[in-house]
């Protein structure tokens, strides 16, 4: 590890208020696969495995917290709160607050096309950081990091003021009046493989409820659902 990277990681640890015993873990957590793929002379570990682990730890910590803190909420409401808190836009917003993107190692192509600030990359790396803290300091340290960063979103979600998972919210609105399912249809893909843009429409009862665009299918689906909710187009079907 060179001096510049060492300084970067030291700075990031100050921001998140956690010092790693094994500095390699946070280095890997902040390394994207695009960077590893560009390094030909040596094997570089990247963050996808830590992301997998962090995703599970995050879900457990949030589930445990809302289960014990909000005893009045039924299972369905608990599920909705958790979904809004652990979804990609929520995690990306928190990643931006801790300047995670500025400390990522990205491939040149990914970096040049805005990957450092892309929600999907930031959310995945945020989960990887959680996975790294869990391996380095155990469940309690990971839980502390998660709650320190996410508790405000949990409170907003419980109050019904955090609607970030627009897909789930739209499904609930429609299910209150119909059992028919929503379909998401990709109508256009544009751009090179490393920088694609997706255009997606929501179809319900043979009617287009909304359309959205994004750098991933998930982002485009969320934007389409958001448009349908804001336009209240689901009420006319």
Automatic annotation (TrEMBL):
| Protein source organism | Alkaliphilus pronyensis
List required co-factors.
Mg(2+)
Give the GO terms filed under biological process for this record: mRNA processing; regulation of gene expression; rRNA processing; tRNA processing
Give the UniProt family note: Belongs to the ribonuclease III family.
What's the protein name?
Ribonuclease 3
**Role:** Digests double-stranded RNA. Involved in the processing of primary rRNA transcript to yield the immediate precursors to the large and small rRNAs (23S and 16S). Processes some mRNAs, and tRNAs when they are encoded in the rRNA operon. Processes pre-crRNA and tracrRNA of type II CRISPR loci if present in the organism.
Residues forming the catalytic site: 55, 127
Q: Reaction catalysed? A: Endonucleolytic cleavage to 5'-phosphomonoester
User: Which sites bind Mg(2+)?
Assistant: 51, 124, 127
Name its cellular compartments.
Cytoplasm
Every copy of the RNase III domain together lies at 9-138
Annotated EC? 3.1.26.3
Q: Sorted alphabetically, which SMART domains does this protein's record hold?
A: DSRM, RIBOc
